[in-house]
């Protein structure tokens, strides 16, 4: 018997492998400072927990429509549209068991075998994995590092387009770099998509994880983009619900219809009682999500203070997500280490600080000379942020 040949094209989310290494080290009695995984150790707001329990006890435990219950689709369409300055209805929404399913279902719906899909690199590794697994050609576009953060290499993106290019994945408020597009950059992306008649997946997982007073912006607000764009929406980040697995896809009605058919063939439907609970979350008290954001901001500030005290690191303050992506090339040179994975593993063993590297976020470009690590501060307390990064600093200068 043989397995399907396409399995060798299926990638993974390698942050989980780093997490396993960290857990194994901790199980040996060592203290670990978990900067590796974009999880949250904050509690889901109590009103959501109570609402889920209520609806479970009220009998919302059976099958429901594969596209999601109409009541949640309606409420979510209004919330998403209002926050992005566009109009949606329930017919523009399909509910998913998390944010990640939108990626492969979008690709399944718009990409044929041999089509090219542009995706951000460094970026969420599931983009690359799903494009290739489904028989497409993954075409990466890259970022420049500036003193104000990361910006997209628009010229390189334009040069990557061919007659086979079908879609573009765009992750504003980006994992792992925390890059936030300026209005000009977003308009440049939109111009490219419209000119070449591309589908766009707007990965908005961190859309509401913003720390400044400026409202987040979405590419669907640019004329000509709403009709070609699917939004990846997740409740995981805003409400600290990573393990609850609930999200949605918002986009043109015909695309949503096709994705609903995929839902029916894949998981039948998404958790019934939790959908009812999220209506209460979206229409009720926002204090819980505001508290989560406030705590994340305090952790960001603590991590930034410690990181920027290390000679050889200078990081722009990220205004979105819960990641910091410092250039550590000078630190590797100081330690006499040539390989970034060797640097990561030695840091874990010698300091307990666990993090991901550039290599966990897509294949490196030929000729890349700089080394980066990603520090997630969403699952680590402030005292441990300071303590861990002080140990990391001491190790660097030793």
Q: Using the 3D structure, state the CATH architecture of the largest domain.
A: 3-Layer(aba) Sandwich
Radius of gyration: 21 Å
Measure the end-to-end span: 55 Å
Overall pLDDT metric: 94
Write the CATH fold name of the largest domain. Answer: Aspartate Aminotransferase, domain 2
Number of strands: 14
General description of the model:
- With 398 residues, this protein is of the alpha/beta class.
- The protein has 2 domains: 5-43 and 288-397, Aspartate Aminotransferase, domain 1 (Alpha-Beta Complex); 62-283, 3-Layer(aba) Sandwich (Aspartate Aminotransferase, domain 2), CATH 3.40.640.10.
- Helices cover 40% and strands 14% of the residues.
- Strand 7, helix 7 and strand 8 (199-203) form a beta-alpha-beta unit.
- Helix 4 crosses helix 8 and helix 10 (287-307) packs parallel to helix 13 (382-397).
- The longest helix has 21 residues, at 287-307.
- The chain is globular and about 60 Å long.
- The chain starts with 14 loop residues before the first helix and ends with a helix.
- The mean pLDDT is 94.
Protein traits:
single chain, 398 residues, alpha/beta, Aspartate Aminotransferase, domain 1, Aspartate Aminotransferase, domain 2, 2 domains, seven-stranded mixed sheet, three-stranded antiparallel sheet, 13 helices, 40% helix
Summarize the structure.
This protein has 398 residues and is α/β, with parallel strands linked by helices. The protein is built from 13 helices and 14 strands.
């Amino acid at each position: 018997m043989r397995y399907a040949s396409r399995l060798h094209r299926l990638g993974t989310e390698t942050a989980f492998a780093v997490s396993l290494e960290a857990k194994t080290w901790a199980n040996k009695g060592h203290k670990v400072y978990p900067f590796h995984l974009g999880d949250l150790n904050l509690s889901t707001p109590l009103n959501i927990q109570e609402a889920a329990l209520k609806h479970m006890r009220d009998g919302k435990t059976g099958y429901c429509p594969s596209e999601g219950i109409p009541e949640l689709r309606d409420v979510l369409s209004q919330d998403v549209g209002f926050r992005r300055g566009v109009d949606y209805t329930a017919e523009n929404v399909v509910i998913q068991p998390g944010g990640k399913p939108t990626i492969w279902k979008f690709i399944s719906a718009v990409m044929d075998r041999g089509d090219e899909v542009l995706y951000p690199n460094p970026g969420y590794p599931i983009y690359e994995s799903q494009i290739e697994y489904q028989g497409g050609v993954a075409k990466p576009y890259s970022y420049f590092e500036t003193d104000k953060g990361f910006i997209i290499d628009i010229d390189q993106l334009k040069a990557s387009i061919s007659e086979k290019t079908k879609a573009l994945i765009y992750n504003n408020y980006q994992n792992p770099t925390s890059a936030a597009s300026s209005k000009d950059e977003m308009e440049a992306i939109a111009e490219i998509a419209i000119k070449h008649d591309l589908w766009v997946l707007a990965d908005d997982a961190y859309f509401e994880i913003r720390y400044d007073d400026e409202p987040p912006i979405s590419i669907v607000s640019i004329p000509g983009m709403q009709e070609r764009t699917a939004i990846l929406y997740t409740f995981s980040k805003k409400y600290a619900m990573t393990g609850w697995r609930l999200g949605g896809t918002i986009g043109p009605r015909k695309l949503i219809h096709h994705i609903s058919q995929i839902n029916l063939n894949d998981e039948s439907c998404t958790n019934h009682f939790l959908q009812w609970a999220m209506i209460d979350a979206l229409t009720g008290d926002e204090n819980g999500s505001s508290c989560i954001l406030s705590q994340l901001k305090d952790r960001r500030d603590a991590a930034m203070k410690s990181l920027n005290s290390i000679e050889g690191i200078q990081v722009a303050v990220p205004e979105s997500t819960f990641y910091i992506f410092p250039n550590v090339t000078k630190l590797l040179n100081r330690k006499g280490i040539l390989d970034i994975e060797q640097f990561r593993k030695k840091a874990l063993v010698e300091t307990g600080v666990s993090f991901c590297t550039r290599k966990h976020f897509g294949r490196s470009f030929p000729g890349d000379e700089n080394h980066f690590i990603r520090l997630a501060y969403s699952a680590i307390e402030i005292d441990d942020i300071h303590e861990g990064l002080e140990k990391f600093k001491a190790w660097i200068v030793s």
